[in-house]
Amino acid sequence: MKDLNRRRLTREETREQTRQRLIESARQQVAARGFNAASMRDIAEAAGYSQGAFYSNFESKEALLLEVLKLHKLEESERVASIIDAAGDDIEAALDGLDAWAEKLSESPEHALISAELQLHAVRNPEFGKAYWAIMAEQRALYAQLAKRLFDLSKTPPPVALEDLAGGLMALERSMTLDRAISPGSMLSMVPVLLRALLDNQERSRA
């Protein structure tokens, strides 16, 4: 029996639902098949829509994949920020939280696969590369802010420019996640390990 009290979605809500389903479909299709092999038709059909629905929401596959990247980066940044905020002034609690986050992230190689596909496409397509670089620059800035919080909690200065540190750690995690996709359980996430080592080294240098 239909729920007569169920509210009908507005046109804007329906459009947003369609966009989100297409974004999730693109995430899955590109991770599984690669950027070139995952066609717009494939993405739309896997989400339960026609190709026309795709074009009514996104002008190209590149535009859709940039939305996938933006969404993941936002989710990731919010998750790490919440860990640090929850830890308050306890640096060890913050690092333990980052350990747990990195372990969970390493369980699914999906985003690392997508990032690798988009990075290669950015190298080969200058226009796409500009948009890709802008998103990654925003992400490095966010991670630099989070790194600053950790160094502030430890009351030590960072050893290098924070955005350089953030960019290096992001690249390392992407690479190692791909390695773990090839050989699951082959290695631990090195980002929390390196952050602990850097913080410990800075504390010793001040002693």
TrEMBL record:
Zinc in keyword set: no
Print the keywords alphabetically.
Answer: DNA-binding, Transcription, Transcription regulation
What range(s) does the HTH tetR-type domain occupy? 16-76
Q: Which GO terms describe its molecular function?
A: DNA-binding transcription factor activity; transcription cis-regulatory region binding
- InterPro entries recorded for this chain? Homeodomain-like_sf, HTH-type_TetR-like_transc_reg, HTH_TetR
User: Where does the sequence pass through the membrane?
Assistant: none
Q: Which residues bind DNA?
A: 39-58
Tagged with keyword Zinc-finger: no
Task: Name the domain of life this protein comes from.
Answer: Bacteria
Q: Which PANTHER family match?
A: HTH-TYPE TRANSCRIPTIONAL REGULATOR BETI, HTH-TYPE TRANSCRIPTIONAL REGULATOR RUTR
Query: What name does UniProt use for this protein?
Result: Regulatory protein TetR
Q: What organism, scientifically named, is this protein from?
A: Sphingobium chlorophenolicum L-1
Q: What is the lineage of its organism?
A: Bacteria, Pseudomonadati, Pseudomonadota, Alphaproteobacteria, Sphingomonadales
